[in-house]
């Protein structure tokens, strides 16, 4: 049985058959600089360590289906699961099939999970600033018949006091939506800005009528004990955010 340290369980009013969780660094067999429960097979960790960690994740989370891992490339592509494609290049996945586990890997980027009010479809999305700006959340939301009835939970990402960016990032968002200006404030460093990924995500979702948005109160950068952070550590592991439907 997982402890509260090992798995974060979303606090949101999802239907009872919906299961979701986020891994942390606690547990696992990976050694530094991936120390803990690293689930990323693409970061330089030993393959056998990642395999053991993924088996541990299944034990902790208690799902019976296979996790459908994606080849994440900061795109706005949402892939329907289950998929027999060998190349699962996408940054979001969705399914209407029970026990099909949608998953994304992150270490500062924003993970978001979705379900409809009746619990007949679930989805998971990986939104770094590029994917967020290019519409990965919109692409995921639009796989649902009625976006206004969709519930979204925003998982652990770099927080608004740590996500420092250049003016080009601010401009990229504001070209798409002028209200994005509210999500940026000047940094103490010259010509830099602090961006709020959570607020940007909420704005994008609200524009499509999705206002039932939960979570968004984490900071991977500042919480070194619980979370991996690419910006903080460079070479590091990845957490997984999972969602699935039980029969």
Automatic annotation (TrEMBL):
InterPro entries: Cu_polyphenol_OxRdtase (IPR003730), Cu_polyphenol_OxRdtase_sf (IPR038371), Cytotoxic_necrot_fac-like_cat (IPR011324). The keyword Hydrolase applies. The keyword Transferase applies. Keywords: Hydrolase, Metal-binding, Transferase, Zinc. Pfam families: Cu-oxidase_4. It catalyses: adenosine + phosphate = alpha-D-ribose 1-phosphate + adenine; adenosine + H2O + H(+) = inosine + NH4(+); inosine + phosphate = alpha-D-ribose 1-phosphate + hypoxanthine; S-methyl-5'-thioadenosine + phosphate = 5-(methylsulfanyl)-alpha-D-ribose 1-phosphate + adenine. Gene3D superfamilies: CNF1/YfiH-like putative cysteine hydrolases (3.60.140.10). GO terms for molecular function: copper ion binding; hydrolase activity; S-methyl-5-thioadenosine phosphorylase activity. Signal peptide: none annotated. Belongs to the purine nucleoside phosphorylase YfiH/LACC1 family. This is Purine nucleoside phosphorylase. It comes from Marinomonas aquimarina.
């Amino acid at each position: 049985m997982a402890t509260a340290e090992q798995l974060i369980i979303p606090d949101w009013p999802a239907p009872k058959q919906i299961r979701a969780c986020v891994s942390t660094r606690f547990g696992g067999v990976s050694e530094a600089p991936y120390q803990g429960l690293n689930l990323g097979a693409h970061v330089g960790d030993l393959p056998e360590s990642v395999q053991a960690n993924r088996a541990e994740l299944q034990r902790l989370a208690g799902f019976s289906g296979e996790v459908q891992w994606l080849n994440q490339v900061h795109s706005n592509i949402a892939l329907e699961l289950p998929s027999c494609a060998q190349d699962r290049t996408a940054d979001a996945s969705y399914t209407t099939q029970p026990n099909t586990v949608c998953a994304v890997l992150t270490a500062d980027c924003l993970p978001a999970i979705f379900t409809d009010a009746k619990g007949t479809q679930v989805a998971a999305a990986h939104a770094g600033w590029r994917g967020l700006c290019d519409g990965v959340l919109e692409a995921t939301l639009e796989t649902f018949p009625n976006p206004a009835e969709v519930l979204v939970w925003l998982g652990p990402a770099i927080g608004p006091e740590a996500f420092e960016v250049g003016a080009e990032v601010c401009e990229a968002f504001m070209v798409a939506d002028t209200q994005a200006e509210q999500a940026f404030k000047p940094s103490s460093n010259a010509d830099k800005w602090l961006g709020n990924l959570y607020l940007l995500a909420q704005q994008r979702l609200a524009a499509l009528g999705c206002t039932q948005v939960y979570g968004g109160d984490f900071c991977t950068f500042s919480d070194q004990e619980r979370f991996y952070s690419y910006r903080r550590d460079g070479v590091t592991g990845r957490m997984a955010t999972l969602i699935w439907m039980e029969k």
